[in-house]
Design brief:
The protein is mainly β. 9% of the residues lie in helices and 50% in strands. It is built from 3 helices and 25 strands. The strands form 6 sheets. Strands 6-10-9-8-7 form a 5-stranded mixed β-sheet, with no helix packed on it. A 4-stranded antiparallel β-sheet has the order 1-25-24-23, with no helix packed on it. The protein is globular and about 45 Å long. The two termini are 37 Å apart.
Length: 323
């Protein structure tokens, strides 16, 4: 016969487990400008920066960098100063502190493509430089090193969209030393997307190659020893949380493609944490598209998870996602 106290404990544990399973994570939709495709944490100013760009044909053009107040969950436009009269369509971006000054580098998806460098101030973004080069073919994202050099991903070899169909592995990774040296450092990559660097290591996420690549960075910018860290398909942008890479994933490529044409399409979203050393992955968020459709970047700040999206007009905050 089972001990009554033991039986009571088992029943209590089952009840508590059921109650815990029924708890739903609180989520907040933080209103932003259209197309909040990329987000990053500005730790110095304790805010989230948002790269906003309306991408749908027929919609009013709208492009800006916004900031989200982490305490109030309110977004506002971050003004530019000393900005020349150039067309601005931000895509991927990255923060880096160089010689004690924090800079924001932004992929500018105009013709011709370019990289815009801003000095980051609390109240505004101060234009510093526009980088242009023929190797900026279809830049998707970039990552900046502490010395001011940077890597960028070209998702295809030509601005022509047909390139994706006829040459699906035509993507490349480019490098600039921050001055006049530009070169292609990897090629034949299937839609390279997000990039992240740390401790002389470069990570490149691909959307169609079933690969998250890991490289050794050389002093001249070249890359050695490409290894596949993970073979999950549909990777987008990369952020970091201690020993883990946090990566948004598009598990259904067809629905994700339809999302640009049909706004009501529900494109499923997943987010994985992937160990930087072992490649072991853990699914930390999954949704069928009803909560957020086509999530493009995932960002961990404390116990909260923030998700951006290619289209739409909000960043999704999942509170206490680790609990």
């Amino acid at each position: 016969m089972i001990n009554r106290n033991l039986l009571f404990s088992i029943i209590l544990c089952v009840i508590c487990s059921c109650e815990k399973a029924q708890i739903k994570k609180e989520h907040i939709k933080i209103t932003t400008a259209p197309g909040p495709e990329d987000i990053l944490y500005d730790k110095i100013n304790n805010r989230i920066l948002v790269s906003c760009n309306e991408r749908r044909d027929g919609e009013p053009a709208h492009s800006e960098i916004q900031q989200i107040n982490i305490e109030t969950n309110i977004s506002i436009t971050l003004p530019f100063i000393n900005m020349p009269a150039i067309e601005f369509k931000p895509v991927g971006f990255d923060l880096q502190t160089i010689n004690g000054i924090q800079y924001l580098y932004v992929v500018n998806y105009t013709q011709p493509r370019s990289i815009i460098q801003f000095k980051v101030n609390k109240e505004n973004l101060d234009f510093v430089k526009e980088y242009k080069n023929e190797l900026l073919i279809t830049p998707n994202d970039l990552t900046v090193l502490p010395n001011g050099s940077f890597y960028f991903s070209n998702d295809k070899d030509s601005p022509n969209i047909i390139e994706l169909l006829t040459n699906p592995n035509g993507g490349s990774v480019g490098y600039c030393d921050g001055n006049n040296t530009w070169k292609k450092v990897d090629s034949a990559v299937g839609f390279p997307n997000g990039l992240y660097n740390e401790n002389d290591t470069l990570y490149v996420a691909t959307s169609r190659h079933r690969a998250l690549y890991k490289y050794e960075i050389q002093s001249n910018g070249n890359l050695l020893n490409r290894k596949v860290l993970s073979n999950i398909n549909g990777f987008d942008n990369i952020s970091s949380d201690e020993d883990e890479l946090i990566i948004a994933v598009h598990p259904d490529e067809i629905k994700f493609a339809l999302l640009s044409l049909i706004p009501t399409t529900l494109s499923p979203s997943k987010t994985y944490s992937i160990n930087k050393h072992t490649g072991i992955s853990k699914l930390i968020f999954e949704n069928d598209g009803t909560l957020i459709s086509g999530s493009s970047t995932a960002l961990v700040i404390g116990n909260d998870l923030y998700l951006s999206q290619i289209f739409g007009e909000y960043v999704l905050k999942i509170e206490n996602y680790k609990e």
